[in-house]
């Protein structure tokens, strides 16, 4: 492959029309590569390369002899004489073959015969070039009746049957499939005998040729091929190759087999038909193996690596984005999540195309797709700095989702749609909305008739006396959906109890078991689960691939269970009240949210180093006892609070959790219970009213902070990253908390403080797009956020002032740095002074010797701040 890539690059570079956007036909690549080599050799052999193309003459002679010999190579001596005979009448100098070897037109090899005799051979260096030259010779030697050439006894059929190498057969057939339309306007598929057309040895080269041909294939032929492959178990590999080629060509706006073909083909299918021929195909296409060329992974990389400087035509971006959106059907959670984030990133540079892309998926019959289309739209709405773009997105979402009658009974779709409209309303560019229409309760009907247990049990397959184990996938759906007491006191399904019933437990006037029965009915009758299509797959959704088993994957049946769950819960939320009489407010309670579209981490952007100093600790040489009792080797508190950036700007660290150990955590000795020393510290900060400052800090000084009885920030797993500080969910979950929290110790009130931080947490269960699992970001607390007058910056984890300058951040999000909360010192002190407030820090830590009986040493400190800087000292306590 590297050799062919070199040929490809040289051929394209020499093609004068390549920059004009002409399609890359492999024949053109070979043409200009041969011209390039001919020009180079003309200088050595002193001939006019414009009038004589000696390289082409030699190649044509070689191909003719190889076809005649039905061989991929010639004996070196025969090849040498053939070349000399071809060029000697034009040249005075000899050894033209040696230069062709040097230019990688040919390559030589050596073999040893059974009689220990050495024989040298010469063949085409690029097998694909040789295949095409031989295919051209075969076609040139035929009359216009190519059908006869492929019939039994025909010249090409005889040649192929005599060829021993299957690989070469495939290469030559692919070359014929590329060239034949240019000769006769016919497709190889049409000239083959009917009985051979769908044989993999002919069909695969035909499909592979589509990536390299200069002539479009008729959509009718593509439809016919797809129709022949669908539902044929023996053609599963061919069907997957069909999709591989289609995805590989998806960005080619001039090709009939591009993303539009894929979109139109998949859109018109029923949900179950599409899942049978497409969703199952996707399961083994992510993540990518290093040794395979995967068009799915390649297309995702294209989206991730697009930037402002990449001036892709709008048509190309739409083709790629439509194709990637169809990855949303997948039951491979990793693929679905990466595709969602990749599209948000792609549209960040092509914001004007979002609505056209969304419109293309109006009416699609797969909730997995519509949910993620709206998730992408939400991600784009939050990441744009252009209010005009936000308004266009919000207007479209409001009109199609909330202002057109009944809002789609899909809890996730509504959540993303509402998020967009609420953001526009908050930024005062959606004031024309009737915001009540975008807030629950929405108007949907609630079912009145439910299947009984007996009716539901009729879906169970009868597998007694049969070896058709795939039928068990049907039973898996029913077992999974059983609620806690749906079939007695035991035997519930995990999904039925911990997902379905858990979300429905606190509602009035519902029976979770009956709703579960309804969900089962929908799985089979509304969504069309077909055990004949999905049974074998659902018995082993990860297939035989170890890498697929390591990621979050589902059954097709589980997909339909999720779809039923989100619709049923939406209808319950619209029509029922909670047990305490309150109404549903949003998808954060009960928590049923999915991927967070407001946080996007590009896996192909390597994190750069950050200016934050490395707080190192290396005092491990002392004896264990001396190390525990040494009170002088702890990092100096002021150095962990006051830091300067590379521009000599002063910053304050408000929260940080450094930790050190004398052994690497991956050290096998640690896992086997060997002795390990560890030092950990927890740095936190608190804001007080100036009048309470001395009273609080003096009371805390020389007091052990162990037990974590001081107020601490908490994490919120229910809020999206960019939903903090303003949204209805924020108002429901965070705003009710008291701004000023009491410090109580030993039943004594010491004073009240305001926290400076809050933590965003999104578990990996709800986002497989990030390889490192759950996402943690330290953010300014609501108190600090409003005190500083800041807002979210363009980059996640960063907050900017009114001029757009970053003044507060967690550097671990975008840089190679530890997680901590940093704030511009001058800004914070100015705001504190203006409000008559002050700040202090606490440090809680511990020296430990793990896997021993040695007592640990507790470390506590209170660090005060004044106009003279920070001051405070450590105090040590036995634990």
Explain how this protein is built.
The protein contains 36 helices and 22 strands. With 879 residues, the chain is of the alpha+beta class. The longest helix has 20 residues, at 26-45. The strands form 5 sheets. Strands 7, 8, 10, 11, 19, 20, 21 and 22 form an 8-stranded antiparallel beta sheet that branches. The protein has a 6-stranded antiparallel beta sheet with strand order 5-6-18-16-15-14. The protein is globular. Strand 19 and strand 20 form a beta hairpin. Residues 18-22 and 543-550 have low confidence and may be disordered.
Structure summary:
By secondary structure, the protein is of the alpha+beta class.
Keywords:
879 residues, alpha+beta, eight-stranded antiparallel sheet, six-stranded antiparallel sheet, 36 helices, 22 strands, globular
Q: Oligomerization state of this entry? A: single chain
Count up the helices: 36
Helix content: 40-55%
Number of strands: 22
Major sheet description: 8 strands, antiparallel
How far from one another are the termini? 64 Å
Query: What class do helices, strands and sheet pairing give?
Result: alpha+beta
Radius of gyration: 35 Å
Question: What is the global morphology?
Answer: globular
- Percentage beta strand: 5-15%
Uncertain segments of ≥5 residues (pLDDT<50)? 18-22, 543-550
């Amino acid at each position: 492959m590297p050799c062919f890539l070199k040929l490809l690059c040289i051929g394209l570079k020499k093609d004068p029309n390549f920059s004009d956007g002409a399609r890359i036909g492999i024949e053109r690549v070979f043409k200009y590569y041969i011209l390039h080599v001919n020009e180079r050799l003309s200088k050595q052999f002193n001939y006019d390369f414009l009038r004589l193309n000696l390289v082409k003459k030699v190649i044509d002679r070689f191909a003719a002899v190889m076809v005649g010999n039905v061989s991929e190579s010639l004996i070196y001596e025969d090849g040498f004489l053939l070349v000399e005979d071809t060029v000697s009448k034009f040249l005075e100098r000899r050894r033209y073959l040696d230069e062709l070897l040097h230019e990688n037109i040919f390559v030589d090899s050596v073999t040893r015969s059974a009689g220990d005799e050495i024989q040298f051979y010469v063949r085409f260096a690029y097998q694909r070039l040789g295949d095409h030259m031989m295919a051209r010779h075969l076609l040139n030697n035929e009359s216009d009746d190519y059908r006869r050439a492929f019939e039994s006894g025909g010249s090409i059929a005889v040649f192929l049957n005599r060829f021993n190498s299957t690989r070469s057969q495939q290469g030559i057939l692919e070359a014929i499939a590329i060239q034949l339309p240019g000769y006769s306007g016919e497709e190889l598929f049409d000239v083959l005998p009917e009985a051979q057309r769908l044989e993999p040895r002919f069909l695969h080269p035909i499909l592979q040729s589509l990536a390299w041909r200069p002539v479009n294939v008729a959509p009718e032929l593509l439809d016919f091929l797809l129709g022949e492959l669908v539902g044929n178990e023996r053609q599963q590999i061919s069907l997957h190759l069909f999709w591989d080629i289609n995805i590989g060509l998806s960005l080619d706006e001039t090709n009939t087999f591009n993303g539009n073909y894929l979109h139109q083909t998949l859109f018109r299918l029923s949900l179950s038909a599409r899942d049978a021929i497409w969703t199952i195909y996707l399961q083994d296409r992510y993540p990518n193996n290093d040794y395979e060329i995967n068009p799915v992974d390649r297309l995702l990389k294209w989206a991730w690596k697009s930037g402002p400087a990449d001036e892709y035509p709008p048509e190309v971006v739409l083709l790629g984005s439509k194709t990637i959106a169809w990855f949303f059907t997948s039951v491979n959670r990793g693929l679905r999540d990466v595709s969602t984030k990749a599209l948000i990133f792609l549209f960040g540079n092509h914001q004007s195309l979002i609505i056209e892309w969304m419109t293309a998926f109006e009416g699609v019959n797969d909730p997995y797709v519509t949910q993620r289309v709206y998730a992408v739209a939400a991600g784009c709405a939050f990441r744009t700095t252009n209010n005009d773009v936000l308004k266009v997105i919000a207007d479209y979402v409001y009109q199609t989702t909330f202002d057109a009658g009944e809002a789609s009974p899909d809890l996730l779709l509504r959540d993303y749609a509402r998020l967009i409209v609420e953001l526009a309303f908050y930024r005062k560019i959606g004031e024309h909305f009737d915001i009540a229409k975008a807030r629950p309760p929405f108007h949907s009907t609630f079912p009145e008739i439910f299947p009984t247990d007996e009716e539901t049990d009729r879906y169970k397959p009868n597998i007694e006396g049969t070896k058709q184990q795939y039928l068990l996938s049907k039973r898996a759906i029913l077992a999974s959906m059983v609620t806690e007491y749906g079939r007695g006191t035991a035997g519930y399904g995990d999904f039925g109890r911990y997902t379905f019933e858990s979300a429905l437990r606190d509602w009035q006037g519902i029976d979770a078991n009956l709703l579960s029965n309804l969900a089962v009915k929908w799985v089979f009758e509304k969504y069309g689960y077909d055990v004949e299509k999905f049974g074998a797959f659902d018995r082993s959704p990860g297939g035989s691939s170890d890498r697929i088993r390591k990621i979050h994957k589902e059954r097709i049946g589980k997909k339909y269970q999720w779809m039923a769950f989100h619709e049923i819960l939406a209808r319950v939320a619209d029509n029922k009240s909670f047990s305490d009489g309150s109404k549903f407010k949003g998808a954060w309670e009960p928590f049923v949210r999915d991927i967070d579209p407001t946080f996007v981490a590009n896996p192909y952007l390597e994190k750069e180093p950050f200016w934050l100093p490395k707080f190192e600790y290396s005092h491990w040489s002392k004896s264990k006892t001396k190390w525990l009792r040494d009170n002088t080797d702890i990092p100096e508190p002021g150095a962990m609070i006051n830091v300067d950036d590379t521009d000599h700007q002063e910053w304050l660290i408000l929260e940080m959790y450094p930790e050190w150990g004398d052994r690497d955590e991956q050290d096998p000795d640690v896992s086997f219970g060997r002795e390990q020393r560890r030092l950990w510290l927890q740095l936190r900060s608190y804001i007080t009213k100036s009048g309470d400052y001395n009273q609080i800090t003096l009371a805390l000084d020389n007091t052990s902070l162990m037990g974590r009885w001081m107020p601490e920030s908490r994490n919120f797993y229910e809020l999206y990253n960019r939903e903090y500080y303003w949204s209805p969910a924020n108002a429901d979950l965070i705003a009710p908390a008291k701004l000023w929290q009491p410090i109580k110790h030993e039943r004594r009130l010491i004073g009240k403080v305001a926290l400076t931080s809050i933590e965003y947490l999104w578990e990996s269960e709800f986002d497989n797009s990030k390889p490192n699992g759950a996402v943690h970001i330290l953010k300014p607390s609501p108190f600090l956020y409003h005190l500083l007058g800041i807002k979210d910056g363009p980059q996640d984890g960063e907050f900017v002032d009114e001029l757009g300058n970053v003044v507060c951040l967690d550097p671990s999000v975008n840089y190679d740095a530890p997680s901590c909360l940093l704030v511009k010192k001058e800004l914070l002190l100015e705001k504190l002074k203006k409000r008559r407030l002050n700040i202090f820090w606490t440090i809680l830590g511990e020296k430990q010797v793990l896997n021993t009986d040695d007592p640990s040493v507790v470390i506590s400190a209170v660090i005060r701040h004044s106009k003279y800087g920070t001051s405070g000292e450590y105090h040590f306590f036995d634990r």
